[in-house]
User: Which sequence fits this backbone?
């Protein structure tokens, strides 16, 4: 009931105004919403949001990190952690901030985000625009965030990427610099080598390069903390089965703790006729057209034997449940949240509360 009411209110009252705001510029709307959530999370309004959205459900331990719920914020939604204090009140069980890079960078020229309303999709070519890993670290430190303490009511992951101007042969040192900045505050770190919006970045998914990168991060994490922060690898949906297997094998051998599957896609299949005019726009496609391929990638990724956080094409509670049934430990939403609002989170939590009580599968502590 909560999910249906929230979804209806968002779709019929709030979303139409948001989608028309700022000349229908999706990036400016996104920035305004994140700023607003950043303010609301520090006020009594957070308690109201929590009352309306409800609590996370079906807790699970993933790579040693306790998630109070199975649905999280996907990377890209809150790059610089501005709204981090609002994600728990909105019912999320974890939030992945970023992607941040070692050096601040503006990203690609605007316009760089396109809303495909009929297809329930987005195309973005942001290019890791962010204030830098140190800026995120300083913000979290100012709020008293520390790894393992759930200071903001939920665990925080941080997605890290390569600074655009850094050559591929120096990428490992660049990623380690970001890791060093955020390790005190991140409950896990996701290595983004799969964004299509930084030139050459996806070459880092090649087995040799990826093995060296992940090994360097795992070694750095071990040197920074007695209990190292878990390192996850985020994979692309555009890899062939053979390429994906190679990526998984390299990550596993280098000491990765888990995977995020999957990033945005360069494919343009599944667009509705009114949105075909966007097919030539460069960038990564997310949303409903990615649902089927994301499930295929998750199904293959779970065979590697490490925890998988499913991301991509999760537009409904049923989509989330399908990912969990495939073996994913948890799910993340981004485009689905933009199109359906907090009702989607409430709906996933409600579905998990009914279908995934710990008593049905042993203690939640024992899942991973």
Assistant:
């Amino acid at each position: 009931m909560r999910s249906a009411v929230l979804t209806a209110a968002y779709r019929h009252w709030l979303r139409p105004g948001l989608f028309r705001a700022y000349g229908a510029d999706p990036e400016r709307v996104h920035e305004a919403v994140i700023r607003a959530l950043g303010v609301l999370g520090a006020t009594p309004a957070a308690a109201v949001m929590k009352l309306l959205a409800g609590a996370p459900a079906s807790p699970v331990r993933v790579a040693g990190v306790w998630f109070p719920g199975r649905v999280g914020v996907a990377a890209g939604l809150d790059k610089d952690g501005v709204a981090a204090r609002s994600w728990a009140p909105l019912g999320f069980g974890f939030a992945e901030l970023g992607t941040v890079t070692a050096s601040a960078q503006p990203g690609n020229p605007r316009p760089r985000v396109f809303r495909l309303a009929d297809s329930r999709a987005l195309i973005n070519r942001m290019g890791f625009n962010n204030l830098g890993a140190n800026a995120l670290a300083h913000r979290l430190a100012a709020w008293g965030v520390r790894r393992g303490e759930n200071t903001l009511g939920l665990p925080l992951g941080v997605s890290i990427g390569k600074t655009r101007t850094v050559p591929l042969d120096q990428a490992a040192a660049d990623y380690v610099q970001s890791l060093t900045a955020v390790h005190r505050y991140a409950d896990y770190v996701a290595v983004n080598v799969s964004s299509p919006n930084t030139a050459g970045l996806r070459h880092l998914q090649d087995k040799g390069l990826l093995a060296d990168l992940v090994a360097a991060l795992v070694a750095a994490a071990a040197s920074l903390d007695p209990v190292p922060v878990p390192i996850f690898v985020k994979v692309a949906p555009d890899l062939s089965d053979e390429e994906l297997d190679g990526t998984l094998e390299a990550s596993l051998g280098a000491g990765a703790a888990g995977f995020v599957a999957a990033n945005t896609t360069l494919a343009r299949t599944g667009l509705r006729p009114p949105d075909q005019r966007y097919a030539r726009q460069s960038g990564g496609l997310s949303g409903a057209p990615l649902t089927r391929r994301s499930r295929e990638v998750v199904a293959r990724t779970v065979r590697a034997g490490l925890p998988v956080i499913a991301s991509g094409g999760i537009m409904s509670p049923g989509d989330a449940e399908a990912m969990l049934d495939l073996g994913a430990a948890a799910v993340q939403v981004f485009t689905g949240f933009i199109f359906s609002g907090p009702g989607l989170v409430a709906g996933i939590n409600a579905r998990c509360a009914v279908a995934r009580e710990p008593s049905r599968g042993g203690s939640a502590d024992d899942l991973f």
Summary: The CA atoms of residues 65 and 187 lie 7 Å apart. The chain has a mean pLDDT of 95. The two ends are 31 Å apart (CA to CA). The longest helix spans residues 2-24.
